Protein 1
Amino acid sequence: MSALMSPLEIISLAYITELDPAMIKDSFILTAQVQYIKPVLTAPLYDDVLLDPAGDLYAVLVDDYIKPCLAYYVKGSMLNQQLLETSQYTTGSDPALAQSLMDVSTAVMISPEHRRDIVKEVFAMAKYKLDLLVAYLIEQEFPLYTLPTARRVSGFIIT
């Protein structure tokens, strides 16, 4: 399976400050992609998009809807780790990044409540972008897209 976007694209769409792209691992991107994007697209459309994400049929879908949504889900998924690991971050092979990275004392001093609120805010932005993605999917009537159906499990309606 291939990632629909690169770490640089995620930084460009979801971050305000500079971030070392090496901090965004493919595993974060792929996990968010499968967890949040695939269920919304439905498996047939998701698999078809992966075959040619930059093609004419899916370019607008991927660039304008999937990538912005995915960028915020990746950011939200890795934010706590990022904040905690930044306190141990070394500049590695690119010392020029040192000036733009989060200050070590800032990473350590963020309270758990503040971190929780930041993560909540990032996921709220991701959810908003997910809603835009769903609306676009419905509006465009992609042939491989099917509206998710609600099902009843043990008396509860699952959508």
Protein 2
Amino acid sequence: MNTYCIEVEVSNCLIVPEAQKALFNRKEEDVAGWACYKTLYFDGNNEEEAKEKAIQYMQDEPNLQALTLNTPENPKRYRITSIIPWPYGDPLSPEEVTKNYAFNAVDEQGNVLTWMEASDPKKVKYKKIAKKKLFKGSEPIWNPVLCGHIASTCHLSYTESDRAILESLPEPIMHLHYLWTFECEVGGNGIECFVLEKCGHEIKGCYEALQAVGHKQLAEALGMGIALSLEPDEEGNISAEYVHDVEDLTWFNHFKGCSRYKELHEIDDAFDVYELTNNDLEKKIVAYIKANISDIASGS
């Protein structure tokens, strides 16, 4: 029995109206359907058995079913886009991976629709969400409602230049945007992938956002990750992508020497990063939303 890392694409998703309004800033007539992607881990005697388990799980997954309203005549489509053996220790459970969803709009050919141009920072303006949309009882709905509303405020290029766009938002909104990024990226791939692959503004923004909501453990873990990401390999090369894009590394260099560990993967294990990100961080975020509600939502 082997463990496999399996990426599943779910397409032709017809999303419930409330989620569609919250998640997307597109005209309905421009979109033929929606798609989402999840990386799951399943045991199997062979690849085919693991694939079958992954697709069956997604077909039954309650969070996805609650967000979508497909009919038997117009069902969702499931496709395995990649599968590889996973010899790296205990992976995330499917329930942890599928707790939250991020959908992509697709055209009639199934191509993901993306924004061609990033927002002009001078023209970005956050429009407060109505409290009646944000709250369910006394609790704000962080994901997907507020996450999607904030994401629809501006269009990003996913480069270092996005920092100027996000800094044009009110500070609580900027912090929440980075926290959503942190949840999506670190919740699935850990600190190691995050500090090696993401833009410098995302790493710095997420660290500052974690401090803003008072999650000291995750901020400390990320700080140690930054420290190790600056360490050169035996040939003197630094593999972290942000190092080659950020003009001034002064802020990052402050973390040098602060890690108690020698390898990045040790940080994820030592701090139980997946558990904290997927099951603990949201409590801090919700408290932060309530404390800054006047900047976030309007109405009664």
